[in-house]
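Lab channel / #folding
Pinned by the channel admin:
"Please post every new chain as: sequence first, then the structure tokens as a reply. Keep commentary short and put observations after the output so the thread stays searchable."

First post following the new format, from NK:
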Amino acid sequence: MKTYKIATIPGDGIGKEVIPAGRAVLESLAGSGSDFAFEFENFGWGGDWYREHGEMMPADGLDALRDKDAILFGSAGDPDIPDHITLWGLRLKICQGFDQYANVRPTRILPGIDGPLKRCGPNDLDWVIVRENSEGEYAGVGGRVHQGHPIEAATDVSMMTRAGVERIMRFAFKLAQSRPRKLLTVVTKSNAQRHAMVMWDEIAVQIAKEFPDVRWDKELVDAATARMVNRPATLDTLVATNLHADILSDLAAALAGSLGIAPTGNIDPERRYPSMFEPIHGSAFDIMGKGLANPVGTFWSVVMLLEHLGETAAAQRVMAAVEHVTANKALHTRDLGGSAGTTDVTQAVCAHLAHRAPH
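Reply from TO:
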């Protein structure tokens, strides 16, 4: 029997509630007729670790993760610690340390969930946003000088490399090629950002020649937001820079009903290092410890994790359980207009997995 080594990093806020829920679903899956098992190791890194050790994770923390098959991550963010410390000290340290350069964010309207778009049917909003995850606006290049003086200056440089753009474009075209519509929208802002984004556009044209069966178009990022709202059915796969895709994917999740249901995968497509899967909702300290967090985003991230491991049938089982539960409005959490708690949703998904175990 195959045993997968999974690192769990709950992090901060409601991550400490939804990641144990995700582990419970994986354990339920493994215990209900699957031909594989999981070996978990939990890492208590995050804001509490920072208060005790002065860092979000140990300096050699990547070494502890290196031999894992995948990472299930909760959130990074603490109201008492500056956001740039929590983000760069934990999540981005892992993403960049393991060169997880493709951030993949699927979005669709799940059964039983009412999206805010009046004229949008469930099949009209079925997107995957590919976010460049290693450079661009979040490259970390820049600095501050003359702090506290009138002449203080600060810069953040959007750094793009040909290698970085080529690999994310190629990944996005391949992903679009694998989907039924074979449709890709390249999001840009080359009308105003006339150096890096112009190179982004040029490389898209070059990579497109490798995929003659993929239909593709180009859209300015501001126009893309309007298109997502007004013409959602014209979109399928999108590729955008680190910042642009960060914003567009939050809009996508809101249009699908809630940030609480949205998953993401930080992928190393070459599989040199473990990839990391996480819900996109953040630490949500306002509901921490109240049992109100929606675990669906984590469960959908578990689906992506299983797909990455090659366990396609198991991934489909978990997704079917999630859709069965979201279809029942009595199991909607507060963000979806319901009153169910984290435990209610988790138990329902686990029960469905146990009931529908393969024979």
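NK: The mean pLDDT is 95.
TO: also worth noting, The first helix runs from residue 15 to 30.
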